[in-house]
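sanity check both lines:
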Amino acid sequence: MSDPLSTKPTLDLAPIGNCAISALIDRRGRFVWACAPRVDGDPVFSALMDGEEPDHGFWSIELEGLKHISQAYIRNTPVLRTVLTAEDGAAVEIIDFAPRHAKHSRTYRPLAFGRIVRPLEGSPRITVRLRPSADWGARRAETTNGSNHIRYLCTDVTLRLTTNCPVSHVLDERTFRLENAMAFFLGPDEGYDQEVGAGVAATLDRTVAYWKDWVRTLYIPLDYQEAVIRSAITLKLCAYEETGAIVAAMTTSVPEFPESGRNWDYRYCWVRDAYYTVRALNRLGAVDILENYLVYLRNLVDQSAGGHVQPVYGVGLEEDIDERIVTSVKGYRGMEPVRVGNQAREHLQHDVYGQIVLPLVQSFYDDRLLRPGTIDDFYSLEKVGERAFAMHDQTDAGLWEFRTIARVHTYSSVMCWAACDRLAKAADHLGLDSRAEVWRDRAKAIRERIEAETFMPDKGHFAASFGGTELDASLLQLVDLGFLDPQDPRQVATFDAIERDLKKGPYLFRYVEPDDFGEPETAFNFCTFWFIEALHLNGRTDEAREIFENMLSQRTHAGLLSEDLSLGDNELWGNYPQTYSLVGIINCAVLLSRSWTDVR
């Protein structure tokens, strides 16, 4: 974990959000990253991407004589409490949240942040520095103001701060004694129709109650509950509720390892990442996120009309998220480039067809859903299956999104097999016997082709591509997808080969061969969790639990993980918070926990 008093950019950050807007707050209680009006929009707080001493792009509450900082979430919520203590014992409490609660028979989730600053001890003197950015961090947002508000003219949105703090204190960044609670509501450019102190406090209480009630609906394992609950809450924060999209992470361009150039924009909805996210949350009974994502998928199915499906879309189903480089900020710790958009939208990644079919098939079986799947839904989904069957033996960029390497990847082909296999089972369930037979035949044909092209009899295990000999961690998913039995000798041999070649210390690499950017230098956290699952399936549960608990110890103080972990110093790299990694925490916790019957 980072030093709370340090100003060096770090991923030791705590997210807040409400499924419409989100922000990352550092150990000092500073907003250092937030985009508006959507998670993939222009950053209104950009300091995370602008070196060690940015001039703007942050919101800080600074305590004179600061000596000590403590920070934690209010239990079972994404509401953050930061306590700043001065050398003379004076202390202040900062409560940060994004409003979310029931209002007028619908969910109130404005593009807004609430902040309450209270004196706790002594006579604390504070300075409020609110410096939103514009034009991708190129400049401070211009302001206008009234007697109780300040308007910040950002690029794609105008934010209004309504507060009972003297407006001139904020505008002039004047240091003053905090004698009473100060409330700040930074949100839409519209009047605040109540007394701001009481209004923000009431909204805070309702928001805390909403999240505690939501957590109560989860089915959680006996062990590792704190880790599971925090992961589940944060995965929900990565959902864009208006459309049902789920983003891979809240950030862009945090490199996978220092000076690697592997700086990507993850603020979009990958079909693959979202599939794994809803699958993990489904294990916890979080049907609200699943059901909303199914709406997104059904729209995607209609939009594709049986043709090509991109691996990644904007949260509003936008296809055009072309990649570009911005130079208006310095990058995370000064490491360029900073990318907006993602070139993966141009890729062929044929695993997406399975990752569309598998979650949508659940709608034909799940009686909890407000809108169960229909016969018409099945016929629409068959178009995706047709595409899967056509593409199962065609080259693609694979799930690791190689930019200059095209192969027929085993994982992509197995996902196409899974699409056909699940359609056959769904057709059986729906009484469509002739369609079930069609899809069984296609699944069988794909299986035979995969086994012929990727199994190496001389080595006894599968390869990561047709006719290849290389390995990658996705081969561990053949059991999870139902392609291999856990005790199949071919699975055991594949696991042994992956452990031998891809495991470095307690962690797993995606692959070790050079790619477009050279040899990988960091372990991929999601793959380490896959390895933990495989260890358990291969009867080595004690080892699995040891590595899992080590992974939990690498989390930030907020209980979260990014995409990658460096060997030796165990520093987190890659975008944050990474949905893949949080999915891994949930899946492994459920798998490795004791049963509730052990204690009741």
